[in-house]
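Consider a protein example.
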Amino acid sequence: MMPSTISSIAFYILQPFFGFIVGALFYWVFRKVRARLQARRGPPWYQTFADVTKLLFKESITPLIADKTIFFLAPLLAFTGYLVVLLQLPIGNVYPPFAGDLIVILIFLTLPGVAVILAGSGSGSPYGAIGSSRETALLVASEIPFIISALVTAIQVKSMNILKIVDAQNQFGPMAFHYPLAMVAFFICMLLKLGRKPFDIPDAEVEIIAGPYTEYSGSLLGIFEISNALRWFVVPALAVNLFFAGGLANLFVFLILCLIVVAVISFLDAQNSRYRIDQAFTFLLTWATLLAVIDLVRASTGWVQW
């Protein structure tokens, strides 16, 4: 085999493991920061790894009234969405063998939300049904500002290629400096993508136990946990690539920037209370969308010249 083929295979094998490990550690950082801000100790660093290991070796129990096909496929769909996005993202100076397309990335990032909807509706649980309906409303409201804010960077660079978006920022400066409103809108949507306050409505523990995840157990719940670890790396990594020059093609800087994003998300989660579904829907479709549209107009009219 040619060296390029060997390196491509190595990338596709190692990248998922790297994303899971770093994402699990980022999730631990979130839980630790939130705990400290709430005067608690928080979990040990290995908690996610222990949980996943335990769950993968346990039997999954499927409710009698559940749609077994949907119940089984939902966690696999969530995992697939994050995995495909991860394999298209440049990680510092580690570039994917094939250039990632921003449209493809945004499409696959909707799959985990769809998976949550299917998990709740297919479980046969009233808690799952409520969580599913809430996730549907939030997905509709959040995708508009999320997609618009991401496309601002592509319009400025005149390319949907994520690698070209990163390289352009290395030449002309991070998008966060040129389009701060789009960055803020993107961060607002990130709170929802990561399931954090004030948008953690679909699986609100106090109200509906775990919402769409209530009936899941064993290996199927373990797959959801793996997906959760992946999203704690994938979503901050996408933000760094789109608005912070991909860590200036430096792996260490890239991870530090991702960690800063996680720390900001952790602080916002600890300081906010949960919205009602109508409040979240209105906020996303007004303020978040307005911020994204303002910078979309600026990018479309050539306001920022490179």
Q: What stands out?
A: Residues 15-300 form one domain. The chain has one domain: 15-300. The chain is about 70% helix and 0% strand. The mean pLDDT is 91.
